[in-house]
Specification:
single chain; 318 residues; alpha+beta; Beta Polymerase, domain 2; Methane Monooxygenase Hydroxylase, Chain G, domain 1; seven-stranded mixed β-sheet
Length: 318
């Protein structure tokens, strides 16, 4: 799907095609090879294919195509199953148009057009539209990090709360920790690519002699990305600590169960020895013919079980 945006008095509005009002932004969602070829012909520049977007080399993500900067960053979005995925989004900053190519639906591409006119940068130029869109993307990444931080705090309270957890609760906590850590890793990866994009874009904006406010905005966005990246790193350290702590608590629970069986085995070993002695089939065993032999054997078995338990309790093992 290809969406065209032109500037009006209030901001950006959708227009049917390039032939109408002056188009500032062309948003291409899941374009096929034919769409790319047609749009490349109309714009006079080779647009990156999906295979090009998925290349991991920095030279494949940030480069100049006939003097036009082509920049690719990884951005998060939710798929139809409600899972967070990260996919490449390319920004082609032409002199008179901004072209974006993507194969998933990050939320900023839906929310930004309605906010473009209210942005402090405005939307009078392609540079302003790009910087405003990046600002919306950074805000979205910050929101995800904040929500993930709250989720991690909630998991921490469950693990370290006064109420002990059972096996199912520990299993749920470990799964939640893994999912939170996965989201943080995705956001960090996205922030790293966005930081490189901003570093590549700064000299481009300087060379075009764009408005001073736009140049200042880029530097501010770069600092914001660095700050969010540091927060994501802190959250990743926290999830690592929580995972180690949860596994440690599970080990303590397992050791407690094993200790119970060990104590039971040691406590019943002396009575078993007594029963084994009097169970031997020797002809001369005086206690067998003694009237009080049976009560004596039972008492000896009980005493031999209680003495180890008393010793364990005295030493604090129970």
């Amino acid at each position: 799907m290809i969406t065209y945006y032109a500037k009006d008095q209030t901001g950006l509005r959708k227009v049917p095609d390039l032939g109408g009002a002056p188009v500032l932004w062309i948003d291409m969602l899941s374009p096929d090879a034919q769409d790319l070829a047609q749009m490349s012909g109309r714009l006079g520049i080779a647009l990156p294919s999906r295979e090009d977007q998925e290349e991991i080399e920095q030279s494949s993500r940030l480069y100049l195509e006939e003097g036009v900067p082509v920049m690719t960053a990884l951005l998060p979005a939710r798929n139809d199953a409600g899972e967070t995925i990260v996919g490449p989004v390319s920004f082609v900053l032409m002199a008179d148009r901004l072209v974006t190519l993507r194969h998933h639906a990050p939320r900023p591409f839906t929310t930004y057009p309605d906010k473009a006119g209210k942005s402090s940068y405005g939307c009078a130029s392609t540079e302003a539209v790009l910087i405003g869109l990046i600002e919306e993307i950074i805000d979205r990444l910050a929101d995800i990090i904040e929500q993930t931080g709250r989720d991690i705090d909630a998991i921490s309270k469950r693990i370290f709360g006064d109420k002990p957890l059972n096996t199912a609760a520990y299993r749920t906590a470990l799964r939640d920790i893994g999912q939170a850590d996965g989201r943080v890793m995705q956001i960090r990866e996205s922030l790293m690519t966005l930081e490189r994009l901003l570093g590549f874009l700064m000299p481009v904006i300087e060379a075009r002699r764009s408005a001073k406010a736009l140049r200042g905005a880029l530097k501010s966005q770069y600092r914001d990305v660095r700050a969010i990246t540091e927060q994501a790193g802190y959250l990743q350290q926290k999830t690592g600590f929580m995972l180690d702590a949860a596994l440690g608590l599970i080990t303590i629970e397992q050791n407690a169960i094993i200790k119970i069986f060990s104590v039971a085995a040691v406590a019943f070993l002396p009575p078993t020895l007594v029963a084994s002695i009097y169970g031997m089939n020797f002809e001369v065993m005086p206690e067998l013919s003694w009237p009080f032999g049976y009560p004596m054997a039972l008492g000896l078995m009980a005493l031999s079980a209680l003495v180890p338990l008393w010793i364990f309790r005295r030493r604090g093992w129970l």
